[in-house]
Predict the 3D structure of the following.
Amino acid sequence: MDQKILENLYVTGTYSKLLEEIKKLSYKDPTSKLSDIEKAICLSYHSRGLIRLGKIADAEKTLQEFNNKLNECSNNFSLSSLIYYTSVLNLLNLQGNIEKSLKIGLEIESLINIEKNVFSENEEIFSFWSAFLYYLIGMAYYYQFKHDLANQYLKISLNVNKNNLYIKGKSLYLISYIKIEKGEFFKGDFSFEESLNIFREINNRQGQAWAILWQGQFLLQKGNLKSAKNMFLEALNLFSSIKEPQGFHITNSLIGSLYFHQGDIDSAEKLLEKSFDSLVEIADPQMLTYCVIPLLLLYAETGQRLKATNCIDLYQNKCEKSSSSRIEINRLIAKAIYLKSSTRLIDKGEAQKIFLNLLNDPNRKVMNPYVHTDKSFTFFIIVSLIELSLEEFKISEDNLILEEVKQLIDNHIQKEGSKESLEFIELELIGAKFLIIEGKLGEALNIMEKTKEIAVNNDYHYLEDKINKEIEKIDREFKKTIDSTVKERIQRMQLEVYLQEAKKIQGII
């Protein structure tokens, strides 16, 4: 058995051919002449190949067949045990069972430190698989928002790694991703480019596809829809070429999100629903997040409550066994979006509580801002809370509600922006809504027309439609008399001033 052949087939995305080669080796046969190390290597590539083809249940079954290896952990730890456990950790991370993954991973690390002399005769193999182990531990810590520990183990992986280029590229890639979340990515760091160069060097189309996909997400968040779509299509072609369903469906989810922002609701719905159904079958809660949140936003916009209910129920069920902090936050976001779109006040109140808790969550600041919506994570929460507050104010006319809105804007809307960004348009729409309540319908209409022009020029057709609906509301309001007492209360609060100050902080006026 030649591990290099199996590694090359896996790295280049030739997964079906990989499984054929493993089948020829008959590593499960009791009469097999393969060594324990060779059998463990076959098992690793077998399970990972199945995962890449979306056959996660089959991969789990394959690993369970070797469950007796678990008993070796305390009595007879060997190099084959290390290789076996990397397969287990890889699956656990994918399933979101992070607590179990870390428990096993740290136990294996301690055994490695105790049994170092055992591996001296197989230093090359040990370097290869221990690098994989430390990478998986780093990834598990990343899923728990423990960036410093994640970085620590990823750097250990790089230090012990002498010949595993694929894992080196993956480690550098995750390090760069952590830097993005910590706001340090552009401080002279070239880990992302280095990882992409490694993926190209070893013809790892899967790694290239994911890197291109995240670049597309960044462009989508910045409102550069045309370039984002080109990136997504490039990633889609790469995923299609290696027949990897997870990446393929996630890319389609993002294309669906892009169609949604362009106002092509039918195309967006078809892509998002197809991706959601496919990812439910794969049973990966982390991957499901990429389509469930934009799909719930679409259902909320189009008033499809029954579909939204089925969607959230399936997603919550898939998240039940997860111990990933990231999946838990995404689960709460999905639930809040669903409740916010309800007609029941009690549901809207529950959504408000969830959004407020998320706003105070210490992990909020490091949530990837490009994955789920066209807004940053914090801005998305703030806009949701303001929209809920406006609905509440229309019913209660409670002065305190508007004070709380003012405080939200003062405390959280900040940093960069431009007059053509999606966030700028959202902020302008919020200002126009305040003006409508205040009775300044002419001023509100002027804002709407200006933002509509920006939306049209940048192909933000979804926002264009949203603005048109608000303009229709203004036309209706012109025919009504605004309660002067409400007008006076809002004028005293000087909401226009607060919005102007918020925009100045953002640097967009």
Observations:
- The first helix runs from residue 3 to 11.
- The mean pLDDT is 81.
